[in-house]
Amino acid sequence: MADYTFQNKIAVVTGGSEGIGFGIANTIASQGSLVYLIARNPENLEKAKSRIEKNGGKAEIKPADITKFEQIRDVIDSVYQKHNRLDIFVNNAGTWKGQNLDTQFEEIWKLIELDMKAPYQIAHYLTQKFKSLQNKEIKILTVASQAAVKVFELGLGYGPAKMGLVSALHHLKKQMQAEKVSNIHLYNLYPNTVATEKMIEAIKSGNVQDPVSL
Among 112, 177, 178, 179, which residue's beta carbon has the most beta carbons within 10 A? Predict the structure, then answer.
């Protein structure tokens, strides 16, 4: 990885209009990648694209909801068909929501579907798609969380989602090794609380602590 260059790469970043996703997208775009920003809100996507272009980067937008798998599948397929490659996929979209014993289980499960099922399904699809394309290399970065490796308060949905996601990706990687798939590379990122726009109120209220900068 020390010699890896982002110059002229094709990248897709889910949740790329704000927060950690935007930070990653902006960085790799500034280093020469064409970045496709994925999020649900077209207005936020346009603003993010404009910010990246002002910084000298290149970006395109594709509105999609990762919990509706057919939408993100169509994004992946269309980007690949246009460029005949997809070099980087940042599996970032998700959210933190504090949940306690009074939280209805339906709300807990909804968060698990967003933070665990959706990104795992995306990683699984990318693996299925690229394993037969041995001459096409792809790097998949999944943004997990410190909640994947330790237990926090208010994490009844978020904690199991992130732990389950990382466990699933370890099993996916093991199966790739068993089937001798060498062109797909999986990476996980385990950030602590990041001081993004969405987290400011939670930080001020003390629900999350010791934030790091974006």
Answer: 112
User: Are the beta carbons of 195 and 213 closer than 8 angstroms?
Assistant: yes
3-state secondary structure of 151: coil
**Closest C-alpha to 76, from 66, 86, 65, 87:** 86
Alpha helices in 6-143 (DSSP H): 19-30, 42-54, 69-83, 105-112, 118-130
pLDDT per residue of the chain (214 residues) written in tens, 0 to 9: 558 899 999 999 999 999 899 999 999 999 999 999 999 999 999 999 999 999 999 999 999 999 999 999 999 999 999 999 999 999 999 999 999 999 999 999 999 999 999 999 999 999 999 999 999 999 999 999 999 999 999 999 999 999 999 999 999 999 999 999 999 999 999 988 766 666 556 556 666 566 666 6
